[in-house]
Amino acid sequence: MEQLLAHYSSSPETNQRLRELHALLTSARPQAPLATRMAWMEELAGWLQAPGATPPRRGRLAPVESAGSARLRLLLEVLGESSAWSKAVRGVFASVLSETSMLRLLTEPGLSAGRGLMEDALTRLGQRLLPLAPDERDLAPLVWNLLPGEKGQAWLDELSEEHVEALCSLLGAESFAPLKAAVEDAVVILAARVSARGLASDVLSRLAPASLELSPFVHLPRACEALRMAVRAGAESSTVESRRRACAEAIAGCRAATRQVLCHMDEHAVCFDLVYRLEQLGHTIDRLESLLWLLAPEAPRSLPRAATRLLSSLLQAHTRERGVVELFRSGVRSIARRIFEHTGKVGRHYITTTQDEYHRMVSAAAGGGLLTAGTAALKLAITFAALPLFFEGLAAATNYAVCFLLIQLLGFALATKQPSMTAAALAASMDVKAGDKEMHSLVRQLACITRSQLAAVFGNLGAVVTTVTLLGGVLQAIRGRPLLEVHEAEYVVRSLHPFKSATLLYAAFTGVLLWCSSVFGGWLENWVHYRRLPEALARHHGLRAWLGEARAQRLGRAIAHHACGLGANVSLGLLLGMTPAVCRFFGLPLDVRHVTLSAGTLAFAGVTLGAERLLEPAFLWAVTGILLVGVFNLTVSFSLGLSAAVHARGLAPVGFLRLACAVLTGGIRSLSDFILPPRPPLLPAQPPSSRYSVRSAERTRTLSGKHGAGHEGHELPALLAREPAPPDGSGSTATGH
User: Domain for residue 420, yes or no?
Assistant: First the structure.
């Protein structure tokens, strides 16, 4: 020990570190029980990864290196000067590797053994709650203890390549003989897994039709086995190289097929479990490629560094597989992208860009408000009927769902259903690196969305208030009394006060429910197309016998066309109707506030209270509450839809301040585009009749051909009468050059 201290610069800290190393090396016993040798390796790994400076040799400058490399360098220097310690350490490592199995270490971390998503999730959850029984003959737990978590991976990544090669040379090639055998076995297992997953029926059905013999998933196990046998037989380098190229081609084909299946799902429909299995397939191919490189390396000297990179990837995979949430991340991202892409396509139909589209939106919204008036009347009847809690919620949900479905089938519009869909459409035009030009385009689209949304709100509210007023007067004339009693009307007014009730909280919560319904609608549309439900209905023998072949096909097309709306409307009805009942069942004072339905109920209350009470502060506050309910409904739903769509597409959200500055820099005229209907477009600008005359952008023209054959356009005589004659005095109009 004193001789060891004499070789290095002395300080209390470095002396303590050297004493710890001396104690470790003198306690290495290759003949000790396996558990004792494993514990010694854990102590050595802990010493190597401990923080603190490492002393250089006396008379030498300390090299610039990481802490991990410094300790490994010190270990190698000490072992290089003591053959007894080197032999003992080599014996411990060789005996542990020969008496344990590395197969699970190479084939399981981060990889699923053919199971599905839910089974893997339950397995991981069970492992977190109940730890696995220890297996002394398995090398994987020892590796996780030697290099714990991210700390161990960081230490491994910092090691100098020179030191890693020196350590492998010191341990000797015979120590790593079990590793080579384990790599061969792991290659066989992983190639079989890749082949089995790639030949699954739901994968093959999404690939281009081809002979199974040409499938890369069939060729891969054969190519890997040929390479393994060539390496084992010690074949010539040219033979090994050709086998290696065959494996590389098969792996490239498997990756191309995987991308083709993912593209097919992006275009048609996404399966949550299939996305997970394809991700696992990609990880398995990556692991197999790394092992093939170890089995038949191009340069034997690079083997130590390649083994280090493989071990680092195994540590990363082990850390990743411990989390349950990680299982669902890729699948959620894929299906969310599919859902929001479809809702974005639907949302484009709610964006008006011309006056005709704007007027049609107002008319459709008026029709939606007309139907909502009846729904509001039934809602009040159900609310004050004192039904049992479950049946009250069920009746309210049925009332809402039927109303929303009728609005869709009749081609009407409901303002609160639009924000989450128009937000997805807006996200489709966002660019993480958008410049000023793209920002102005984004602002114009935002102006169209806002203008269209306000048109739908005004149409809904105007129609529902007018219809409820007329309907309330008719009911009062028929029944001799209004629909609501005075105390019921006063309760409605009080419940809509924006500050003396939880109306605004309920309105924000309703915005969340509106967004959730759009997500469910997109999911149902994806599920219908993934299960190919329209084709199944069109070819169903019972339906074809009952409805006829043509009607069965029309039914399938209708299901495909209305699946999103059907799911969104039914789910929204259930959420709005059942959520208050379920919350009251659990003692939660939570309710919903839908702007159109709330406006209808307030209008019924106004009919009961009479015109003289409409200007009272309580009623005016309720009207203010309705306006704020609309703002909260639309803002929350739009914000959630935009954020979810942006994250699903992998885009960076555009900053609010940047977007606001782009809106304000457009001036008052651009701000008016957010509220007022679009102006009629000007007639297209015309080229001048000659090089000396310039036409007005508002004038129509007569086009003439290259050889003077004129094509008459739509002429305005008054404008043509004021048109100057060409300088040459001819009456014809020639095209300018």
Answer: yes
Tokens 């990837």, residue?
A: 313
Q: What is the DSSP letter of 710?
A: E
What type of residue is 621?
W
Burial class (CB in 10 A: 0-12, 13-18, 19+), 452: buried
* Residue at 723: amino acid letter: E
**pLDDT tens, 579-613?**
999 999 998 888 999 999 999 999 999 999 988 89
d(CA 494, CA 488): 10
Measured in degrees and rounded to the nearest 5, phi and psi for residue 710 equal -80, 145
User: For residue 265, how many C-alpha atoms fall within 13 Å in the half-sphere facing its CB?
Assistant: 25
3-class DSSP state of 200: coil
The counts of H helices and E strands in the chain are 31, 2
The DSSP H or E segment spanning 703 is: strand 703-704
The 8 Å CB, 24+ separation contacts for 673-676 are: 673/444, 673/447, 673/451, 674/446, 674/447, 674/450, 674/451, 675/450, 675/451, 675/454, 676/451
Write phi, then psi, for 219 (nearest 5 degrees).
-75, -30
Helices (H), 418-479: 419-428, 436-479
In three-state secondary structure terms, 601 is helix
Q: Is residue 471 part of a domain?
A: yes
Distance, CA of 315 to CA of 198 (rounded, Å): 26
CA dihedral 256, 262, 265, 267 (to 10 degrees): -70
Q: Determine the pLDDT at residue 402.
A: 95
Annotate 614-670 with DSSP letters as a single string. TTSHHHHHHHHHHHHHHHHHHHHHHHHHHHHHHHHTTPPPPPHHHHHHHHHTTHHHH
Q: Say what angle helices 83-99 and 161-171 make with each other, to 10 degrees.
A: 80
C-alpha separations of 625 from 199, 322, 576, 629, 675 in Å = 60, 49, 19, 6, 21
Q: Where in the sequence is the domain holding 625, given as residue range(s)?
A: 350-675
Q: For residue 727, what pLDDT is reported? A: 39
Counted domains in the chain:
1
The Cα–Cα gap between 582 and 591 comes to 10
Residue 200 lies in a domain: no
What are residue 704's DSSP bridge partners? 710
User: Does 10 reside within a domain?
Assistant: no
| Cβ(426)–Cβ(345) below 8 Å | no
Torsion, CA 563, CA 568, CA 571, CA 576, rounded to 10: -160
Distance CA 624, CA 610 (A): 19
The one-letter amino acid at 454: L
Distance CA 630, CA 415 (A): 9
Residues 146-174 have pLDDT tens digits of: 888 888 888 888 888 888 888 888 888 88
Mean pLDDT across the chain? 81
Strand pairing partners for 8? Answer: 57
Which of 202-214 are b and which e, b meaning 16 or more Cβ less than 10 Å from the residue's Cβ?
Answer: ebbebbeeeeeee
